[in-house]
Amino acid sequence: MELEGRGAGGVAGGPAAAPGRSPGESALLDGWLQRGVGRGAGGGEAGACRPPVRQDPDSGPDYEALPAGATVTTHMVAGAVAGILEHCVMYPVDCVKTRMQSLQPDPAARYRNVLEALWRIIRTEGLWRPMRGLNVTATGAGPAHALYFACYEKLKKTLSDVIHPGGNSHIANGAAGCVATLLHDAAMNPAEVVKQRMQMYNSPYHRVTDCVRAVWQNEGAGAFYRSYTTQLTMNVPFQAIHFMTYEFLQEHFNPQRRYNPSSHVVSGACAGAVAAAVTTPLDVCKTLLNTQESLALNSNFTGHITGMASAFRTVYQVGGVTAYFRGVQARVIYQIPSTAIAWSVYEFFKYLITKRQEEWRAGK
């Protein structure tokens, strides 16, 4: 959106419409510029008196020039869409990851790599077999990511204002992500349990309702949260590593901290891959707690595997140290596009919804 044609009728001169621009568009542009200029280095009225700064067309769009003031509802809707798309697009790879993390897989379910696994699953079990359980995942991902992004945005702003007023704090970003994980995992954990049991080779469950009923009747309601503490133990360091790596890469790829979608996607994907690889042992334990593999249970004398310590011990007894890194290839391959999709879709929908809200207010 160009800034020419404003002349003396800019921010200080009132919402005069520029030639070729409707009154609604002019009012919308004035509103955005007033907020951007009002946040000048001088702050307050002094900042508002500065003329708008022309942007170099070759420098790319400035992040601060995007619509500001997104509501909690906007964060929740954008987060829900991002979460659902992320999980739906990457679900076949997630199915492979679950199977490759099996401690004692059936001979027919031993795979060398992700592509071979997908080809064999489709060839021997049907085209739609890698998608079994997608419906419960999408159902859980929507509210889980809505809570995650809304909580993250609110806490990030609140903590940044305390730690580094008027600026961005890496500590605040990391802390906000870790706290938001508590809500995300609380909403997502039951869906994870059902999903992973339906993904396993020779799973007896063909429908979500059958799996939910069997788990509830045979193991009780607590089975849906058996891996919750392990998931938190995995996701809290995951988020910390994710944000630290992301900020480190941004310092190199985007030192001016402009709004640069390509740098955000690349940094996010690399950060997700590093965090995924480091936390793979915890993900293996989480998968064991969710699926309760029969062969692994035979090596555990207490019956059901009920805690992180028990899961770590069982993984080592069954497969040794290398068992902690089963499925690491699939996990990293899953996380690279998954993180990129989540953040790019979230930022896009947040911008789109906020822009539509601003246009609606300007047209009233």
Automatic annotation (TrEMBL):
<dbReference type="InterPro" id="IPR018108">
    <property type="entry name" value="MCP_transmembrane"/>
</dbReference>
<keyword id="KW-0472">Membrane</keyword>
<keyword id="KW-0408">Iron</keyword>
<comment type="similarity">
    <text>Belongs to the mitochondrial carrier (TC 2.A.29) family.</text>
</comment>
<feature type="compositionally biased region" description="Low complexity">
    <location>
        <begin position="14"/>
        <end position="27"/>
    </location>
</feature>
<keyword id="KW-0406">Ion transport</keyword>
<feature type="region of interest" description="Disordered">
    <location>
        <begin position="1"/>
        <end position="28"/>
    </location>
</feature>
<keyword id="KW-0410">Iron transport</keyword>
<keyword id="KW-1133">Transmembrane helix</keyword>
<keyword id="KW-0813">Transport</keyword>
<keyword id="KW-0496">Mitochondrion</keyword>
<feature type="repeat" description="Solcar">
    <location>
        <begin position="168"/>
        <end position="252"/>
    </location>
</feature>
<feature type="repeat" description="Solcar">
    <location>
        <begin position="259"/>
        <end position="352"/>
    </location>
</feature>
<comment type="function">
    <text>Mitochondrial iron transporter that mediates iron uptake. Probably required for heme synthesis of hemoproteins and Fe-S cluster assembly in non-erythroid cells.</text>
</comment>
<protein>
    <recommendedName>
        <fullName>Mitoferrin-2</fullName>
    </recommendedName>
</protein>
<feature type="compositionally biased region" description="Gly residues">
    <location>
        <begin position="1"/>
        <end position="13"/>
    </location>
</feature>
<feature type="repeat" description="Solcar">
    <location>
        <begin position="70"/>
        <end position="158"/>
    </location>
</feature>
<feature type="region of interest" description="Disordered">
    <location>
        <begin position="40"/>
        <end position="60"/>
    </location>
</feature>
<keyword id="KW-0812">Transmembrane</keyword>
<dbReference type="Pfam" id="PF00153">
    <property type="entry name" value="Mito_carr"/>
</dbReference>
<keyword id="KW-0999">Mitochondrion inner membrane</keyword>
<dbReference type="InterPro" id="IPR023395">
    <property type="entry name" value="MCP_dom_sf"/>
</dbReference>
